[in-house]
Design a protein that fits this description.
Length: 306
């Protein structure tokens, strides 16, 4: 008959197995979770003695961390609670708790405010990022609820403000506009405006949400005109480039045909050009003389001179 296994330090999970904590190498972001995981294992295996807790933790640590823990004061005195506090202190668990500051939230809000948010997916992405930072700051009392609500609203682009505000006023006509809109109410309003199953979803454009704003309309029209100009530029640019390539090709071929002459050949060429010029001058004189003869008559005054 099988006897029930007695839980003790011997039944604790072997390092590297499924239920064992991942080996701790000194990462400050993991030290608190590592200690909590180790305490659960000790509780599950009925390990209550301080000396056993202090010695057994070494098997789940790297060599460097083991050597460090062995040098701690409360490891030698076998005081687990004090040793745990030392581990959290020396491996800077407090640093992991100071994840975000208020300027991190401001950076997220400013960046999101300048982006388009034309779909529910875009909004959900912003909401997750905001809750990650803003929710943590609120939980740690780093910011107030009003700042949390106001910053979330500021992170929405202006194109959404008008529609979301109208939706909030439709839901609650007595809404106090002197106070920041509540986070949950804004989420519901945006989800209604950017509903995925809209019948006109294909025609829906986030740029048209705030059509009452003249400045945004003018800017959007200028953007459209600039986009259309950009679309027409490539063909002209390609044709111009092809023409330039042909001209460059012809120029390069002409330059290749022009070969430099040697000094002796250049002298001969110049001499032949001089002779051709002299011959041409003589031919011009003969032709002029013949023309004069043709225009004379026997009775002419210049005829006896010849």
């Amino acid at each position: 008959m099988n006897q029930p296994t007695t839980l003790s330090v011997i039944t604790m999970p072997i390092p590297g197995t499924r239920y064992a904590p991942k080996k701790f190498k000194g990462d400050y972001t993991r030290v608190r979770d590592f200690v909590l995981h180790y305490e659960r294992i000790c509780h599950a295996n009925n390990v209550t003695a301080d000396d056993k807790k202090c010695s057994s933790i070494l098997q789940y640590c790297s060599t460097y961390v083991c050597e460090f823990i062995e040098g701690m004061k409360h490891f030698t005195t076998h005081s687990w609670n004090s040793l745990k506090d030392e581990i959290l202190q020396y491996f800077d668990a407090a640093k992991a708790e100071a994840k975000f500051k208020e300027h991190h939230l401001k950076q997220l809000v400013d960046a999101s405010h300048k982006k388009k948010m034309g779909s529910l997916d875009d909004f959900k992405s912003y909401m997750r990022k905001y809750v990650r930072i803003g929710g943590w700051l609120l939980a740690k009392s780093k910011i107030t609820q009003d700042i949390f609500n106001r910053s979330f609203w500021k992170g929405l682009p202006k194109t959404l403000h008008h529609c979301v505000k109208n939706r909030l006023l439709q839901t609650d006509p007595t809404l106090d506009l002197s106070q920041p809109f509540v986070f949950d109410d804004v989420v519901k309003a945006v989800e209604h405006v950017l509903c995925r199953d809209r019948f006109d979803d294909e025609d829906f454009d986030s740029d048209d949400l705030d059509s009452d704003s003249d400045s945004e309309n003018s800017s959007s029209s200028s953007d459209d005109s600039s986009d259309s100009d950009k679309e027409e530029e490539p063909p002209c640019y390609i044709r111009k480039t092809t023409k330039q390539k042909k001209e460059k090709k012809c120029t390069s071929e002409t330059e290749k045909e022009r070969k430099l002459l040697s000094p002796s050949k250049s002298k001969k060429t110049l001499h032949s050009l001089d002779e051709e010029e002299h011959t041409a001058v003589k031919q011009d004189e003969v032709e002029t003389f013949i023309k004069k003869l043709g225009s004379m008559t026997i009775e002419g005054p210049n005829y006896p001179l010849l």
